[in-house]
DNA sequence: GTGGTCTAGACCACG
DNA sequence: GTGGTCTAGACCACC
């Protein structure tokens, strides 16, 4: 399954679902026409209340990532891929930019910041591989 | 004034105050023995609810960054500088790490992430100088 | 074929079928005694679930628009034409009335609403001719 | 109060709230900076569950009509007025266009449709005045 | 079976 | 006091 939830993370569960679906579309793991798992099924898989999943799905529909076909389920929209790549890049770039701005405001030197980035990027890739 | 508040940012106002005071101490802009502005004064300056400033000050006392002298106000603690540098590095590193982890999870390649970091770090330093 | 389905429209598919059959009867495109396509055939033609067609046909029987002759299929009822004209006018009038009421509630002026109606009615007739 | 709910209407309650707030902003009845009634208060006034109000307010935030200030409440956004007028016109025009298209597809003549519009527009204005 | 809406009520963070 | 998230469970329409 392409979604993993951390219920104790600061970002809300429904938002984790939304962005992970978008990431999966952006990376091609989900393709236009693919069905999303049903609300009830995903709720069981993630040990989460169905309403929480439904809320995430609602947002995906509203963002045009997903189309709902009555009585059938939700499907990746044909026009989703481009939008998701844009969204993904915007989200990721935004978070990185914010973190770096804070570092600069905190008066860290360019070298210190670059060191931190190097270290943490290595760690992030190592963790990702380890999973 | 060494503090700038963004009331519509995602991080709560009181936390923005706390970390910016710590940053100022860490960088030497505030030195042991310096007085903090009064709760009311700072609230006026930042256009913020006094309760919010009070909460931030409470946290600073709790963290040992600041000592209260009854009837006089709050003063940067002599032992604050080292702890603030530690806190600052931890906060900054944490945010950067989190942003990078998300980028990795979103399946961006190392090169793409490094590009974003380069661009955004340049921008951050340019903005800082411009202020 | 006299029916066109829009699966992503807000009005349910089975209802689109029902009202379009009624419209065809009201306008004389379908005449008493004419046969309806079989459930399976229409389902294939419209790319729709057979259950949906079956439900639409059930409603048409219930409304007396269509008579079933065992083993032969469904046929436009002799007494259907008048009732269908009534139904058609009621449906159409109802939708128009609802749309206009909303416009009035939204505080648009009589002139603004009349402008919209003129423009959209022209467009609707132009599109209809173009098909 | 500028909001009236019809719990038995086909359009969901939360959506009625959303569009009525937008209409109020578009017509100038609500102005940038004005506070919305609190979630709990409006829920009491409309005899509706607070979650339903919260959902409507969430959508308004998402649409940029309203800004949330933590701990204080929701306020009409400065940039809302223009967007709301656009939204209102789009919603109203869309519904009218849809109704007219259906009338044309049902083979009603231009005169018949214009008659219906005249009658129903009169009725709508009379009802509105009567309230 | 599917999604969508609504209610009820708990808990949290913020000001 | 404010909004925001989440759970639990009911009911509906559609396919």
Structure description:
Four copies of one chain form a homotetramer. Chain A has 131 residues and is mainly alpha-helical. Chain A has five helices and two strands, in the order H-H-H-E-E-H-H. Chain A has helices at 13-26, 39-46, 50-62, 80-105, 110-130, and strands spanning 66-69, 73-76. Chain A has a two-stranded antiparallel sheet. In chain A, helix 1 (13-26) packs across helix 3 and helix 2 (39-46) crosses helix 3 (50-62). The longest helix of chain A is centred in the C-terminal third of the chain and has 26 residues, at 80-105. Chain A is elongated. The A-B interface holds A 19-20, 23, 26-27, 29, 88, 91-93, 95-108, 110, 113-114, 116-117, 120-121, 123-125, 127-128 and B 19-20, 23, 26-27, 29, 88, 91-93, 95-108, 110, 113-114, 116-117, 120-121, 123-125, 127-128. The first copy, chain A, binds a DNA duplex (15 and 15 nucleotides) through helix 3.
User: What is the N-to-C succession of helices and strands of chain A?
Assistant: HHHEEHH
Q: Looking at the chains present, what oligomeric state does this protein adopt?
A: homotetramer
Instruction: Strand order, main sheet of chain A: write it out.
Output: 1-2
Total helical segments of chain A: 5
Shape of chain A: elongated
Q: Structural class per helix/strand content of chain A?
A: mainly alpha
Given as residue ranges, the uncertain stretches of chain A (5+ residues, pLDDT < 50) are: none
Can you give the helix content of chain A as a percent range?
Answer: 55-70%
Q: Which protein chains make the most extensive interface, counting residues with beta carbons within 8 Å of the other chain's beta carbons?
A: A-B, 36 and 36 residues
Radius of gyration of chain A: 17 Å
Q: What is the terminal-to-terminal distance of chain A?
A: 13 Å
Average pLDDT metric of chain A: 94
According to DSSP, the number of beta strands of chain A is 2
Largest beta-sheet details of chain A: 2 strands, antiparallel
> What proportion strand of chain A?
5-15%
């Amino acid at each position: 399954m392409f979604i993993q939830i951390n219920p104790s993370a600061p970002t809300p569960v429904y938002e984790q679902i939304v962005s992970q679906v978008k990431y999966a579309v952006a990376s091609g793991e989900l393709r236009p026409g693919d069905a999303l798992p049903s609300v009830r099924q995903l709720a069981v898989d993630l040990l989460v209340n169905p309403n929480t999943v439904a809320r995430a799905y609602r947002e995906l529909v509203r963002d045009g990532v997903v189309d709902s076909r009555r009585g059938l389920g939700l499907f990746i929209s044909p026009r989703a891929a481009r939008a998701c790549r844009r969204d993904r890049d915007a989200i990721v770039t935004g978070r990185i930019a914010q973190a770096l701005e804070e570092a600069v405001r905190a008066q860290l030197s360019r070298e210190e910041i670059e060191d931190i980035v190097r270290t943490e990027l290595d760690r992030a890739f190592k963790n990702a591989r380890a999973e």
